[in-house]
Specification:
By secondary structure, this protein is of the alpha/beta class. The chain has 9 helices and 13 strands. The protein is globular, with a radius of gyration of 20 Å.
């Protein structure tokens, strides 16, 4: 688990200022002094409290799977973090990684789903509705984007996240205080398979203390399958000695998942979240493969979006994961069905 940076307490005064401003902004929206835009279809936000990966995108993917099985038409809007574009763009399967790794990953996985990116998510949603007929819209990473009015707010809580992350930026990594959880429609506690039962219960009690009336849904981040990055062929890598490479918000979960599949992780190269890989990175990876005697490299599906566009001279494999609900998700599905029915 990532340790708290030394000297972070020096940022405590700035954290207090940030938290006060964030709270004021939320209050201005709740009082109607700042306006939210209402769309013609329901909007369901999937977000979190902190900066960094908590498992939002796997949750969006699972909700899309569910919607497709029931014939519901769903669109996705995202700000496209780390993207290189202007205005509103639709992300299409196989596009170059210009629009952000997570939107591209969703577009590749769900080619029939319209995925639109724009830092101004209201504009992205309006363009999506102009171009597409959908029953509802999923707003990825939208909990703090109060300018877009939502019918449901689903907030993801990572069971691996250390407590200091919930201090306000830049003291910690929180975009707002834990009191903001009371605005949520549902809390989804993810990655519980990586923590003890004792920690799981402690987290649930903590969530209940901050948002006693908000239902908690419990989920685990589970391994799905391995594939070859270039051919797409599914593989069995059990027992293989590999170098792991990840540029995600919570890399410790990725290593735990690989070890759970009996992968011998000889080394784990950790890059910053949303890292854009370059030739220097590929040389570093190749050097580590040679030094460790690894049979190749295994990466996350998120990193694979960017690495697929690059030429490599070493075997490159992708570990695919999926969110599995353990309890409480039926109420979310009931709400989604109700909302989609209202818009049809």
């Amino acid at each position: 688990m990532k340790k708290e940076p030394s000297g972070s307490w020096l940022c405590a005064p700035l954290g207090v200022v940030y938290s006060s401003l964030a709270g004021l902004r939320t209050q201005l929206y709740s009082q109607g002094l700042l306006k939210s835009s209402q769309l013609s279809v329901p909007v369901v936000s999937v977000g979190n409290l902190t900066v960094g990966g908590t498992g939002k995108t796997p949750l969006v993917a699972q909700l899309l799977h569910w919607a497709q099985e029931r014939g519901l038409r769903v669109g996705v809007v995202s700000r496209g973090y780390g993207s290189r574009f202007e205005g509103t763009q639709r992300v299409r399967p196989g596009d170059p990684p210009l629009f952000g790794d997570e939107p591209q990953m969703l577009a590749n996985q769900f080619p029939e789903v319209p995925v639109y990116v724009d830092p101004k998510r209201v504009r992205a949603a309006e363009v999506l509705l102009r171009d597409q007929q959908v029953d509802l819209i999923l707003a990825d990473d939208g909990f703090q984007h109060l300018k877009l009015k939502r019918s449901l707010d689903i907030v993801v809580i990572d069971a691996l996240e250390p407590s200091w992350h919930y201090r306000p930026l830049p003291w910690g990594r929180a975009r707002e205080s834990l009191a903001g959880l009371s605005r949520a429609s549902y809390l989804v506690l993810t990655k519980v398979n990586f923590v003890s039962e004792e920690d799981r219960q402690r987290l649930r009690l903590s969530l209940h203390s901050w948002a006693p009336s908000v239902p908690v849904v419990v989920a685990e981040l589970a391994f799905s399958h391995f594939s070859d990055l270039n051919s797409g062929e599914d593989l069995d890598l059990s027992g293989q000695s590999l170098v792991a490479v990840s540029g995600i918000g919570r890399p410790e979960g990725f290593k735990k998942l690989l070890e759970g599949q009996k992968i011998k992780v000889l080394e784990h190269l950790v890059f910053a979240d949303h890292h854009n890989y370059g030739l220097r990175d590929l040389k570093k990876i190749a050097t580590r493969i040679q030094a460790s005697g690894a049979k190749g490299v295994v990466v996350t599906a998120k990193d694979a979006v960017k690495l697929k566009a690059m030429e490599t001279d070493f075997p490159l494999y992708v570990a695919h994961v999926e969110l599995k609900f353990l309890e409480g998700v039926e109420r979310i599905y009931e709400d989604l069905s109700r909302l989609a029915g209202q818009s049809s």
